[in-house]
Write a structure and sequence with these properties.
With about 60 residues, the chain is mainly alpha-helical. The chain has helices at about 1-10, 25-40, 45-65. The protein has a domain at about 20-65. Helix 2 packs antiparallel against helix 3. The chain is rod-shaped. The chain starts with a helix and ends with a helix. About 0% of the residues are buried.
């Protein structure tokens, strides 16, 4: 039993279990929809460019959270 507790405490700080915050997709989605609503001729090419351009906002939201 004490050996199990020792190894549990030894490995406790090595793995970042439970500390991962996923990207906030909602911030990126709101920015994408707002930009596309302002563009009158939004075709598939401009939509893909806007989605790629707003992807860093998802990681910014995770960093803020």
């Amino acid at each position: 039993m004490s050996a199990g507790i020792f190894f549990e405490l030894l490995w406790l700080d090595l793995f970042p279990a439970g500390t991962y915050i996923p990207p906030q997709a909602l911030l990126s989605l709101i920015a994408t929809l707002t930009i596309l609503a302002c563009l009158p001729d939004a075709d598939m090419r401009s939509t893909v460019l806007v989605v790629i351009a707003t992807l860093p906002l998802a990681y910014l939201g995770a960093w803020i959270d």
